[in-house]
Amino acid sequence: MKAPSFAYAKPRSLAEAFDLLERPGAKILAGGQSLIPSLNLRLSAPEILVDITGLPGLSRIEPANGAVRIGALCTHAQLEKSEDIRKHLPLLAEAVPQIAHTAIRNRGTLGGSLALADPAAELPACAVALDAVLVIAGKKGERRVKAVDFFKGLFETDLRENEILVGAEFPKADKSVFLELTRRHGDYAIVGLAAAVQRSERRIAFFGVGGKPVLLKPKTLDDAKASIPTPAADLYHTASTKLHLAKVLLERAWTRL
Amino acid sequence: MDQTLTTTMTVNGTQVTRSIPARQHLVDFLREELGLTGSHLGCEHGVCGACTIRVNGEIVRGCLMLAVQANGCRVETIEGLSDSKELEKLQKAFHEKNALQCGFCTPGMLMAAQDLVRQRKKVSREEIRSHISGNYCRCTGYQAIVDAIEEVIQTEVTHG
Question: Domain limits of chain A?
Fold first, then answer.
């Protein structure tokens, strides 16, 4: 199908972007790898798309003070190729090749994935597992929100109207594991987990099990198994299958944590 | 509001400027406006890979990019890469190995395959499969496609 009609603008500064976002029916367009399919399927009908990919300075990967700050416009491909990500955030290095396919990773962005908050997406779970801080810009300035508070539910985040997610700071971990099960390579996960050990604390974020990433901080494997919430069934898998698969992933991950 | 925007891009080496409706995606523009019908449209939501083209040297889903977003970009399609003979070896190998039947996926498949070939590194069959995992072929069962790509990469890496 073809997208409905809309207007399009590509601001060159945040100030210009905030002005455009005040127009009725305005929607932010970044890499467009989820938004454009939803337009083509007529699941979304914005009045105007505000293409933020022309905003300067939002594509950087900057390691600093035990964390790595990543600009919202960084593409998955950029993360995949980055030496800094491989060195400081191996969890992301492990996760990113499992996101969709090369042609999509060349355009899809970190900010887009986090702001969309698809419950089966990889990067929101990584952000929760690593206790990332999301940086949000608004007309009145920046505010910072922990990933665990940012994701509110199914495609629902703490982002308010006329705000733009400009980046995220991912603290390093001592150990980390990323695992997911998919029907085919590049599909959204049936179920997956992003796990990290920071200051001797295990943080395991499951995705594909509920409306948002589910964070556990278990002491033992049995604890962890018992505290996985029963997932919602999807088109192809019953709740009990998904719960079983979540436990399988947990056992595989545990030996590396 | 059906807004149109004056957009300039380089398509297969030729600069084109057109007034483009914001809602039109890049492959519709290439096909309808420029008559470049080699890039195919299967699903139009980023699943099948038949629309794979190159923008600024990187493969993208042409159906998941608005034509107006290509303003200032270098766009390359199957027509451009065929004419420049960049795809010559892959095309020959696809032919010889029977790596196509109906041919609908072939332009996208070649664009994705060439993206791997031009990296000029040794890859396993598994890596080839992973690289073309975003391109669906409903005829061949992929074995012959992987055979063709593998042959080209082996020759390129050994003799290239």
Answer: 7-54, 61-171, 175-254
